[in-house]
Amino acid sequence: MNYFQKINFFKRLSLLLILLIYGSQSMAQIGPEIAENKHNNSISNKLKWSERMALTLMQRHPQSYMIDDAKVAHWSYVHGLVMYAFQELDKQKKNGKYEAYIKQYADELIDADGNIKTFKLDSYNIDNIPGGRILFDLYAKTKDKCYLTAMQTLRTQLEKQPRTPSGGFWHKQIYPNQMWLDGLYMGEPFYAQYTATFEKGAKFDDIAKQFELIQLHATDLKTGLLYHAWDESRQMPWANKETGNSPNFWSRSIGWYVMALVDVLDYFPKNHPKRKELIKYLNNVSTALVKFQDKSGMWYQVTDMGGREGNYLESSGTSMFAYAFAKGVNKGYLPKEFKKAANKAFDALTTISMKIDSNGEIELTNACAVAGLGGNPYRDGSYEYYINERKKNNDPKATGPFILAALELNR
Asked: Torsions phi, psi of 163, nearest 5?
């Protein structure tokens, strides 16, 4: 090797050493990110179903406001439901990324003064309330008054919410004198937690009254199931002129109701005279529901018409029942046999309704995307109406309860 060859050799060697040193430093810096990306892009089937669903949602919706395929951040009950499920998951896993995902949603929608973006008090839409459930923990951890102010705003809505002559919350300003089963979940768990946290139990009678009215007026004496909605004025075209009830049993609406019961009972004082009544309501409707559980383990979209053409096994209602039954047993509200029904339902959800892609991301299929009554275009609550509403995979009204059910069942 001549002189110039030696010079070139040492130059190349020096360059190689520099690249190796720089490269090792860079890899050390980005290594965790690569590992995280690798983890994020491939979800292990060894994880519990709760985390598999949570990680799927985080990968598909990097910003938590994007859940439900939202393009613009807005205050919504579906985000409140799923973020609440993440909150319960984080309590078990104590993984900072779940807490960060929750906080990201709150901070996107709540400004430094506690104003809630897209929230309109004068719409008196009880669907506005569930997002407030994640704020109790955020306020307790951060002591940031913006979260307290936001909670106070939601409590103000409940204070001013229009009521039926009997004292039940209207579902919305545009739905006068109507109580929907959905509304019991939308309003009462937040109302109960706020009462327990800030009001020394002053409003528990009022909370119980919302359930009493629905139980009294919307329960079908023959089946024990509850109708989707009750119009106290009996003015709506969909309302039975004698009872005020809507025509059919919709599984998800009953799911909202049983979830409301098990969640409200978390905050009801054990010595409160209405507590036993609420537990009785839960037992009554749960006993009615198991009679309509399909042999597959799931429930149909229209609860009592499993054999009718067009009806289908629906995943959001099934997830809600699985959660309510499992939590009901775990808390001692329901007999142990309901845990068996919950596990049977969960088995069906993870087999019949589940799709798993090559990255381990999971999808719950056959979830009803939306259903309601009245409005424009008009929704008449008929059998044909419920079975023909569109379906959506991984609809948040299915994924949130699925995570909660998985946690309660330790699946």
From this structure: -130, 155
Half-sphere exposure of 16 (CA within 13 A, CB side): 6
Q: For residue 31, what pLDDT is reported? A: 31
Answer yes or no: is pLDDT of 33 > 70. no
pLDDT in tens, 327-341: 999 999 999 999 999
- The tokens for 162 are 């229009």
- Cβ within 8 Å of residue 297, ≥6 positions away: 318, 344, 345, 346, 347, 348, 349, 352
| CA 123/CA 174 separation, integer angstroms | 8
Q: Are 158 and 191 in contact (CB under 8 A)?
A: yes
Query: Where along the chain do its domains lie?
Result: 50-409
361: its two tokens: 């991301």
CA distance 377 to 235: 18
**Across 158-178, average pLDDT:** 98
Q: How far apart are CA 366 and CA 353, in angstroms?
A: 7
Q: 223: how many CB neighbours lie within 10 A of its CB?
A: 14
User: Distance of alpha carbon 278 from its chain centroid, rounded?
Assistant: 21
Interval 187-194 mean pLDDT: 98
Task: Compute the distance between CA of residue 273 and CA of residue 277 in angstroms, rounded to an integer.
Answer: 8
pLDDT at 348 over 60: yes
Distance between CA atoms of residues 379 and 365, nearest Å: 24
- Sort strands 229-231 and 178-180 into parallel, antiparallel or unpaired: antiparallel
Which tokens belong to 262? 């098990």
221-231, pLDDT tens digit by residue? 999 999 999 99
Strands 354-356 and 178-180: unpaired
What are the residue numbers of the active site? 182
Residue 292 CA to residue 349 CA, distance in Å, equals 16
CA 388 to chain centre: 23
**Residue-wise pLDDT tens digits, 82-103:** 999 999 999 999 989 999 999 9
Whether omega before 377 lies within 30 degrees of 0, making that bond cis, reads yes
Domain 50-409 has CATH 1.50.10.10: yes
The token pair that represents 359 in the structure block: 């990255």
Mean pLDDT of the chain: 92
**How far is Cα 169 from Cα 157, in angstroms, rounded to an integer?**
11
As a whole number of angstroms, the distance between CA 75 and CA 166 comes to 29
Write phi, then psi, for 362 (nearest 5 degrees). Answer: -120, 150
pLDDT at 15 over 80: no
